[in-house]
Amino acid sequence: xxxxxxVIQVSEIVEPMSxxxxxxxxxxxxxxxxxxxDEGILEPVDEDHPGARFDSSSITIIRRVQRLQGDLxxxxxxxxxxxxxxxxxxxxxxxxxxxxxTLPVVIRMPANDR
Length: 114
Description:
This protein has 4 helices and 2 strands; from the N terminus they run E-H-H-E-H-H. By secondary structure, the chain is mainly α. It starts with 16 loop residues before the first strand and ends in a 12-residue tail after the last helix.
């Protein structure tokens, strides 16, 4: 008998998930997810709640980590640095776009050479 894997869209997940749910959805072991937490790659959303709870962005992060490990063979500390730099780059791009939006537009007319 063949088991089928249900495809769950990340956008469909609204409530925080337990560690068990995150393992089931991502196909990862709890030990590996705990390593991601130890490296600061993944963060539970509700630390006051008994047991770790994760939001849907955790699935996206796990997929990125899996791609970096599989494609580039980067270890977890290296992935933490890469993801931090990617986030910083995105933040700086947003700030640059905000800055560009506030600059006055200057229209230069061609010089009249007579």
